[in-house]
Design a protein that fits this description.
Blueprint: E1 3-7, E2 14-18, E3 57-59, E4 73-80, H1 85-92, H2 98-121, E5 125-130, E6 136-142, H3 146-150, E7 155-160, E8 163-165, E9 177-178, H4 185-192, E10 200-205, H5 221-229, E11 251-252, H6 281-290, E12 294-295, E13 312-314, E14 323-328, E15 335-336, H7 339-348, E16 353-356, H8 368-378, E17 382-386, E18 407-412, E19 441-446, E20 450-453, E21 461-464, H9 467-484, H10 490-500, H11 520-525, E22 528-531, E23 534-537, E24 540-543, E25 547-554, E26 557-568, E27 574-582, E28 590-593, E29 597-600, E30 604-615, E31 632-640, E32 642-657, E33 661-667, E34 680-684, E35 688-695, E36 702-712, E37 728-738, E38 741-750, E39 761-767, E40 776-782, H12 783-788, E41 795-801, E42 807-813, E43 822-828, E44 841-848, E45 854-856, E46 862-864, E47 876-879, E48 883-890, H13 893-899, E49 903-907, E50 918-923
Parallel strand pairs: 2-8, 9-20, 10-14, 10-16, 11-14, 16-17, 17-18, 18-19, 25-32, 34-50
Antiparallel strand pairs: 1-2, 3-42, 4-6, 4-7, 5-6, 8-15, 12-13, 20-21, 22-26, 23-24, 26-30, 27-29, 27-31, 28-30, 31-32, 33-35, 35-48, 36-37, 36-47, 36-49, 37-38, 38-43, 39-40, 39-44, 40-41, 41-42, 44-45, 44-46, 49-50
Helix pairs in contact: 6-9, 7-8, 9-10
């Protein structure tokens, strides 16, 4: 249960769809076919060295290569430079008067007006304008106008807006678990008396069925039907409003007919004050978090909330007496992209807690909804967001879960009858955050077959699974913690939840896969907590519960130091012993601590320096496994004697060991110059050419491959954000003979790295008959998106026939390690309709980012003949440290004249990312 991102078929925009909920059966929680595809051998590779794809040949999909639709319309948020209200309030050091707030909003409206005018004058549509947590406009506009939009005065940046689709699936009620049943919530109510009273909680989702008895509604299907008939009208004050017993307010940002991927009037939101759910997801989420409970007699349960409350049709939520504010961002069907607007509203209305059981894959801290969520945390709201349901490949955690200070929630298998009991649910999305490899503040909660209120039934329950079911449990605990720890900041509440979470209660605990299991009793009882990273965001300063050492690349020693802060808000001193514990998935490393023992006086804090150090030679190659991902991870553990007084701070470094391969071409003919790694030289003449690759002081042996270099862009594109991984630098192709067939491998090198290549798309247009029009497009993107409409973080190679539109699988995964900048796309010549009799073909390349951006080689095309190669490409060299390896490359003068290759492209994936991974050696 979670919303995920996929390329929208035939467009450059993106959309999110709610994951099919995992059923409570053993088969339903099996890992997706991402680690070992069906039909692979024990290594998962073919004789070519590439990993096999799940199948080969035509597949049934609605998706298309992005290059096939060059005039797509995109949905973006335009960020302006002025401070929104939350930032102005933070700079003022306190609450602003309503007059001052109105003045700020009026000034921002004036600033936004020219941008809105530009969009409308170019045939676009202004979806909404935001001024509280975010200063920007949400617009839909043709992609060709994006550059001009970004150049307007006052425009800070233009960001993509992933759309979201709601799609629920229920699970068997026979194995359903009540919200909080395994977390000791009734005992906690009994002992503390805390139930969330007067804590304001926003639930950003599909709305809420406020007629359900779980929310003090009439409790009949007829009541829901009557409310649906008036869904655009103001709801009854007895059910929604300041005097209503449970639902104190809310808003519908979408209207029932809204569909961000639709056409015509469906693209226009029709907001109103009635947040009635017509989907069911939001009702289930809200009930899990804060439902009152429904007795066996079908009536709203009103207490007492303690261990005596046992028999229910619908069990109470974690915090059953909070004030609920449902924020509906969906129509009844289709997609939506209104999350940032809802966060903006929640900040303006001073919510204490915000639950967001939706998001995108490959989330970055700089995504608009992640930025808005971080601003909300700095402004005082605890923001809890589902990590996602895309599985355990790296960099799948979504936004806003990737935002600074946001609590990212993973799901744990709470069903003893299923394999992997107490482990992370196999669908739960893995971190770290894309872009900077940071570790979100992670907490886990039960996520399989969680029972909660069922839409339109009046008083019945339904069981659902996913991180969307886990997230509201943590949000409910956060609401209780806000009530228990009056005066603590939102960041401090988040740090308390994270540092008191139990890693020992999660089998196979791994900070990258998720945090420890939330421990409500300890979170409410603690007077101390540990803070990790500190960040300054637009609306103030916030902290996280983790230490992020980021991506570190090195040929020798990998080392970084970060501080953590231990805080005692209690009235008594506490002495902690300090230790470090590596996770099972960590590469070998030394963790040094500035102290092994610290005493905190009452109401004081102490800083502890944490240093991670590892020899690069022990990290391993990015080619050692299918993803290329390595980690140095674990917990800093702070113990005060009893097990109930243990605090933990997860840490993560993403190391990348580097080789240092340089390449030189020499010919037997005189008058030759040489070319080195990452340099473009000229002067090598046709003839017998020798390639020498030297790995000087690399961390390990270098593995290099030789391609015929065909396309080049010598300069970075300043309009493409660094770290996007699709700013094209060079492209080439090689030929291998595998199983009697010609296997073509296209290599694409970019100026900067990606976190996961599956977030982007890389297209190779192939003109087989020389008429100047592409016949097929070879493209690499997320396998799950194309095959199932659900991202899985695996980069697969597909082929689109331009004439028929049919999509086929090449049978191979792309070679595209994480945190790299060179991708290899294998495809058989026959799959492209190429035969020896047809001779040469022409190709060009385009790159497309998850941020809706694109880059091409302009009008450049390159010719290549796999049967009559101008340059003898295809060689592979393994070069030991401080050694050289050589290969003789046959060059044919006649074919060089016909095909006009630029030269030789030597790809070394473990070299420094960017230009360092592809040596470009010119031949003329």
């Amino acid at each position: 249960m979670f919303f995920r991102m996929m390329p929208r078929p035939g467009t450059r925009t993106t959309r999110l769809c709610l994951a099919t909920l995992v059923a409570a059966t053993a088969s339903a929680v099996a890992l997706p076919s991402a680690v070992a595809a069906p039909g692979t051998d024990s290594s998962g590779t073919t004789s070519s060295g590439f990993h096999r794809a799940p199948s080969k040949g035509r597949i049934d999909t609605d998706a298309t290569a992005r290059m096939s639709d060059p005039n797509a319309r995109v949905s973006v948020i335009v960020q302006l430079s002025g401070d929104p209200v939350a930032v102005a309030q933070a700079k003022a050091g306190g609450d602003l008067s309503s007059t001052k707030v109105n003045q700020i909003q009026s000034a921002l409206s004036t600033e936004q007006s020219p941008v809105a005018g530009f969009v409308r004058s170019h045939g676009g549509h202004v979806v909404s304008q935001m001024r509280s947590a975010y200063n920007g406009l949400h617009v839909q506009i043709a992609s060709k106008d994006i550059d001009r939009l970004a150049d307007l005065p006052g425009v800070e940046a233009v960001h993509p807006v992933p759309s979201r689709t709601a799609a629920d699936s229920s699970t068997s009620s026979r194995s359903a678990a009540a919200s909080g049943s395994s977390l000791g919530i009734p005992q906690l109510w009994q002992r503390t008396g805390l139930t969330g009273r007067r804590i304001r909680v926003a639930v950003i989702d599909t709305g809420l069925d406020y007629t359900h008895a779980d929310f003090a509604g009439p409790g009949t299907p007829a009541a829901y039907d009557a409310a649906r008939a008036r869904s655009a009208a103001t709801p009854s004050a007895s059910l929604v409003g300041p005097r209503a017993p449970r639902v104190k307010g809310g808003r519908d940002f979408a209207g029932d007919s809204y569909d961000s991927s639709g056409t015509g009037s469906a693209l226009v939101p029709r907001p109103d004050s009635n947040p009635l759910d017509c989907n069911g997801h939001g009702t289930h989420v809200a009930g899990t978090l804060a439902g009152s409970g429904v007795t066996t007699a079908g009536r709203t349960y009103t207490g007492p909330y303690n261990t005596s409350a046992r028999s229910f049709l619908v069990s109470p939520g974690i915090a059953p007496q909070v004030d609920l504010y449902p924020l509906k961002v969906f129509g009844c069907s289709g997609t939506s992209d209104l999350t940032t607007e809802a966060i903006d509203w929640a900040v303006a209305h001073r919510m204490n807690v915000i639950n967001i059981s939706l998001g995108s894959v490959h989330g970055r801290p700089g995504d608009p909804d992640a930025v808005a969520a971080s601003n909300a945390v700095a402004a005082g709201a605890v923001v809890v967001s589902a990590a996602g349901n895309q599985g355990q490949n790296p960099y799948l955690t979504g936004a806003p879960a990737a935002g600074r200070g946001v609590i990212s929630v993973a799901a744990v298998n709470n069903q003893a009858s299923l394999p992997g009991y107490r482990s992370y649910a196999p669908f739960s999305s893995s971190g770290p955050a894309s872009g900077d490899s940071s570790l979100p503040t992670g907490v886990a909660a039960p996520g399989i077959a969680i029972s909660s209120a069922a839409l339109g039934t009046g008083r019945a329950a339904v069981a659902m699974s996913g991180t969307s079911s886990a997230s509201p449990q943590v949000a409910g605990v956060a609401a209780l913690a806000v009530q228990a720890h009056r005066g603590w900041s939102a960041s401090q509440i988040g740090a308390a939840l994270s540092s008191t979470a139990s890693s020992s209660r999660v089998v196979g605990y791994d900070p990258v896969l998720g945090g420890g299991l939330v421990d409500p009793a300890r979170a409410l009882a603690t007077s101390s907590f540990a803070e990790g990273d500190h960040y300054r965001v637009a609306s103030g300063t916030l902290t996280t519960g983790t230490l992020s050492f980021g991506l570190v690349e090195s040929r020798s020693t990998i080392q970084r130091t970060r501080p953590l802060v231990l805080v005692n808000k209690g009235s008594r001193p506490i002495t902690y012993t300090v230790a470090a514990r590596a996770s099972a998935g960590s590469r070998p490393a030394t963790v040094s601590l500035s102290t092994r023992r610290v005493t905190l006086r009452a109401h004081s804090s102490a800083r502890i320096m944490v240093t991670l150090r590892a020899p690069a030679s022990r990290v391993g190659s990015s080619l050692d496994n299918r993803t290329g991902f390595h980690q140095i991870s674990g917990d800093v553990v702070l113990s005060a004697g009893r097990s109930t007084q243990i605090l933990r701070v997860p840490y993560l470094m993403v190391p990348r060991a580097q080789t240092n391969a340089s390449a030189v071409l020499r010919t037997t003919r005189p008058g030759v110059r040489t070319a080195h790694t990452a340099a473009i030289a000229r002067g090598v003449r046709p003839g017998t050419t020798n390639l020498t690759v030297t790995n000087s002081r690399g961390a390990m042996a270098a593995r290099s491959a030789v391609f015929t270099w065909g396309l080049s862009d010598r300069r970075r594109d300043p309009t493409i954000t660094g770290g996007s991984g699709y700013d094209l630098r060079a492209a080439g192709v090689q030929t291998r003979t595998v199983g009697g067939q010609k296997l073509l491998v296209f290599a694409i090198n970019t100026w900067d790295r990606w976190s996961s290549a599956s977030a982007n798309e890389y297209d190779v247009a192939v003109d087989a008959n020389g008429d100047g029009v592409p016949d097929r497009i070879v493209f690499a993107t997320d396998s799950g998106v194309i095959r199932r409409g659900e991202p899985d973080g695996v980069t697969e190679v597909f082929i689109q026939d331009i004439r028929t539109g049919f999509i086929s699988a090449s049978g191979y995964l792309a070679l595209a390690p994480t945190d790299s900048s060179t991708i290899e796309l294998p495809v058989t010549a026959s799959a492209l309709g190429l035969r020896s009799s047809s001779g040469s073909f022409s190709y060009t390349v385009a790159g497309y980012g998850v941020d809706s951006g694109e880059d091409t080689f302009g009008s450049q095309w390159s010719r290549y003949n796999p049967w009559r190669r101008a340059i003898g490409d295809g060689a592979g060299l393994t070069v030991a440290v401080n050694r050289s390896a050589r290969a003789s490359l046959a060059t044919t003068a006649a074919e060089i004249s016909r095909q006009k290759p630029r030269g030789v492209m030597v790809v070394t994936p473990d070299n420094p990312s960017g230009s360092g991974q592809a040596a470009l050696l010119s031949i003329r």
